[in-house]
Amino acid sequence: VYSCAILLPFLNDRLNSAPWDVQAIIQKWKEYGTTVNLPRQGRPPKLTGRTRRALIRNAAKRPMVTLDELQRSTAQVGESVHRTTISRALHKVGLYGRVARRKPLLTENHKKSRLQFATSHVGD
To answer: Which domain of life is it from (predicted)?
Structure first.
């Protein structure tokens, strides 16, 4: 039945699915002789694509957020994952934790000298 190209549109309508779905099933039957899901290699990822994207969005939007806060937010969504898993997901897209450089505050003397410099160079 699947060798006839005329039957493809008929099967699409009959099964109420997209043409590529029917073709994928036919291809699977030709290659493996079955249409059931075959065993895969490796462990499936703990984070779904949707949760991973939300996690990346959240981390990019708030740069000072901690891994613990991100872990709690993903647990609220429904997927409880370890901090290391979150860290790996962020590292894969180039987001890394950094410690901001310490920068001392300006003293009164600094402020006065800056103001004096600025007022002396107003007309330049």
So the answer is: Eukaryota
